[in-house]
Records
---
Amino acid sequence: MGLVLLLDANLVWAAPPNDNATAAVTIDVAQIMEWLADFTAIDLPDITTQTSASTGSGTATLYTNGDVSITANNTAAAQLKLGTDPNQTLVTSYKLTDDGGADDAGGTGGTDEGSYTVHSLFLKDSAAYDIIHAAGDGAVVIELHVEAKNEDGDVADVGTYGATQTLTAAWG
């Protein structure tokens, strides 16, 4: 005697439906303002006549997610001088430009400076270089331009002159 059991296909065991759980995730991004690195080295061409001016520039990237103001070192360290002799100097002037801002359809940046300013007055006090942050653009390439020339009616001594310009970014 045999027992035959027939099962209907609709009676097959089914897994329970999926059940989801969610997790709310939050994070705050702090104010960020930092230079990626120092400016690229600026090696000016030689001054070859009393009236010639030598110019060059270097760049540095500034990361920021807010408005900042850039000021400069206005001390003798920013003036080109021969070795350690404070009496052997060149007229040293600077200006800033950038890759965004007012001159580039609204990216993060400022308004490029059109003319050089002597080191002792460059970005001094209320003359800071203002960077305006644009949403979605958290980096700006700053270009530091340098001009060196002899004093009017004088010629500097032969040699290699050097200076260190320090730019400081602060919340604007």
---
Amino acid sequence: MTRRGHVVATVVLLVALAGCAISTPPRGAARLDRADRLAREGAWEQAVTAYGEYLRHHPRGEGAPRAAANRDALRALLSTRAEAARLREELAQLRAELARRDSDLVRVRQESDRLKADLEKLKQIDLKLERRR
């Protein structure tokens, strides 16, 4: 092969290698893409797991900062949702207790009104008895 042939072969080889380098996705891109897709679809628990897998295999990868931020944001979201569900349940229990106590209060007021009426009747009877004497 001539010197010109070596140069051409070297240039072709360099272009081919550069093309491979450009077209080759970063390592772990499929894992990161899967995690992003799961997050977009609302499968947040699975997305947290997928981001964790990516970070476990590629802790210094190009997408590691974004994966860690997304994982942490989704964890916070899931935690907040769980807390909100717990608070909704607690609120429902408090409302039921309040309704029960309100019902008790109505019953006690009715009993108080009845006792006041009975007391008034007794006073009237007592007055009649004193007038007769």
---
Amino acid sequence: MDNQTIINAAELILSSPVTKTVTIAAGENDSTVLDKSRYRNIAIFLPANWVTSAITLKGCDTVGGTFNPIVFSDVSAVAIASVAANKVVVLSDLAKDAIASVPFIQLVSTQAQITDDKIITIVLTR
């Protein structure tokens, strides 16, 4: 295998979307941890049982550390306006820039996700 073939294969792997899930347990607000350390673009697929809510983000430099709210330089929260079930949310360039160097994030629903666990599909690309 020549170097060009290896480079082409690496580019294909790096450009392919990766699908992960996070869960907000019934009665809770914070999701499980998402490792987005190698990705910039995020699409959030909200499930049919999602309780309409705004979403903010928490971040940490380690998977098991303390997660704190992610804010812009003016200290306003990186947030997604109130959104209903069965929606696909893509982050604006401003939001993507704000979380670019935060390797681990949690989604935080401003409304408790009552009754059922909410399994949220996340598609990541570079």
---
Amino acid sequence: MKKIGLILIGMVAGIVSLLILIWGGQTNALANPPTGLSPAVVTGTPTPAGWEDEQTPAGIDASSPRLNVLATPVPGESLVYFVPSDSDATATVLYLYNTDTVAHIVALRGYSYDGVLVYSLNINIGAASFLRLSSDSIASAPPPSWATPAPIITNFTDFTYLASLSLPKGVNVEGYTVFNPGTGVVDPRADQGAIPLRFSSDPAALFMPLVKKSP
């Protein structure tokens, strides 16, 4: 009986030692991940200096007279307006696709609340091609559909209240506002929540509520 008791005590001691070793190994593995592996961290393409959302865009003179002049329509092109959102917790994503057989240049403009031009970009889109634009950086290693062609970063900042697109023949646009609080990065692999953009040839209509008439 005495030998059996000693054997049982030894078995229990061995099991306890084994459990301690396993627990210690798991803790060490969590604290020191194996080489070549890293925790899932959302990172993105670097934002150019001076492109902070709440910093006045470069080249804007706050003392300049307020012209209150929006874009002049280009003959043969469709001028549409939309309201972007580009704060610390939101971003605007646009899709441009050209169904024409020739390349086109799309004029993208952004205006402050009193009509001053605060953003300007001319986008070259090839024949029968597609482009994605984003007002925030994109998470690293994006899905294939976001990697080719690479998105164009279009930082509107908080100073753009209204934006316009001059669409040549065959060029179409869609877009949405995405929520990215705490990251400032658009992550296509995450469910960040989005709201479709409204486009209109009448800028005033964008600030009117969508009211449905009762039957």
